[in-house]
Amino acid sequence: MQPNTSAAWQDRIPGFGTLLVISAILRVVLILYSEWHDAHSIVKYTDIDYRVFSDAARFILYPKPQGNIAKGPLAPLFFTVGDPYTRETYRYTPLLAILLLPNEWLHPSFGKYLFAVCDLINGALIYRILMSHILPHTKSLAPDVSAKNSKRFMRAHASLLAATHLLNPLVFTISTRGSSEAILCTFVLLTLFYALERRQNAAAVVLGLSAHWKIYPIIYGVSCVSAITSQRVDGKGWDFSHLLRRWVGREAICFVLLSAGTFIILGAICYAVWGYPFLYEAYLYHTDRRDHRHNFSPYFYLIYLTYSGTSANLSTWRQLLRSPFTSLIPQLTLSLGTGLVFGQLSAGLPFVWFLQTFTFVLFNRVCTSQYFIWYTLFIPLLVPRINLSWKKWVMCGAVWMGTQALWLAEAYKLEFLGDDVFFGLWVRSLVHVVGHAWVLGVIMSGYIPHVSCNQHS
User: Fold this and answer.
1) Contact 346, 456 (CB under 8 A)
2) What angle do CA 243, 249, 253 make, to 5 degrees?
3) What separation in angstroms does the CA of 69 have from each of 36, 73, 84, 171?
4) 189, 308, 325, 348: which has the highest count of C-beta atoms within 10 A?
5) pTM for this one?
6) pLDDT band at 1 (very low <50, low <70, confident <90, very high)
7) Which has the closest alpha carbon to 346: 454, 439, 242, 422?
8) Chain segment 251-269, per-residue pLDDT in tens
9) Can you tell me whether residue 311 is helix, strand or coil?
10) Nearest-5° Cα angle at 62, 274 to 100
11) DSSP string, 6-18
12) What is the dihedral of CA 236, 239, 244, 249, to 10 degrees?
């Protein structure tokens, strides 16, 4: 009698509870190390953004009549509260600074522990989505596993995939250094979970909260509405009037109103307290953000060439290059278009959101390493349905990391040595875009959607 190799394999995988404990210990150790490292080294482990968050929380907690006071229309009428935007470069929702108030009350590293907890929550959500919505519909996962052991196999497989997120160096380094991306990822995954559970009202509310936190998750609204309307299959074809009737259905309208209403209400409350500084720093600033360094995007070179001078002194051609619409049009066309098209087909929401986010980041006017977490977050949910050889996986990983390494090697000359390598860095930015687009194409070609009995592609 031959041994059950699949059962032997799954027995060697730690349970998800053990994985969470290991992940938690790892993050606590890194946070404690960060405190020691920062106290003994000129080059800090803690991200500069964490200092910005902490300063903003301090400004809220200790208002001053002159210079640090909330400027909203309702703030003086009811209470006195500080202005987080007194801290230069704080360009986030005030809710983030409020969450980090315990940095002053309890411990300066409270925010890091909060971000680490969100990391663990994200791992738990990935595990739950895999167990509930991905692995049960992936029949080719393990053909040699008996029905009796299928549940054990799914648990082991889900734990292994969740580990690729929880034990990802990019993920735990970013959160323990003090970046707040983990909170946003929690909101995004929670929205996805509710959408997959078809709890559309809850998904709409959390999507509105996500878009308030950082504007880009608004792109997921298109695919959510598209998925909602695709559930109303009546076989009448794809003519324009039929599509229009589907898009103005009650469920779709309710989803749009709830998500938009949540976004508007949160924004109105923040505006009432903190006024125009909130509106500009949290949203308007990003429409004309000009980063000609620390930026993977090829648009950085256009920004560099037109950085000095006012728009009135620039030619029409240079004004066009400088305009955010130069990047916004192709970016939104791809990210919203993929949500609209693939949301109507049999591809699952995790895959659609991955496509939307990948194209949004790749063609964004500003692209940094932290943005990669926005789409790598979905990869554990895609792996069971991607049919690629190990050689292609290795090639994808090599191209994805190699193009970044190629760019970083040139960026080092600019950032640290002060060499004039702007044109060479721009060429490498183009290579970065082409390489990452190729990786996306390979993943799309290998994806096998789950087709339910009431769907057809």
Assistant:
1) yes
2) 115
3) 34, 12, 9, 36
4) 189
5) 0.89
6) very low
7) 454
8) 888 999 999 999 999 999 9
9) helix
10) 75
11) HHHHHHTSPPHHH
12) 10
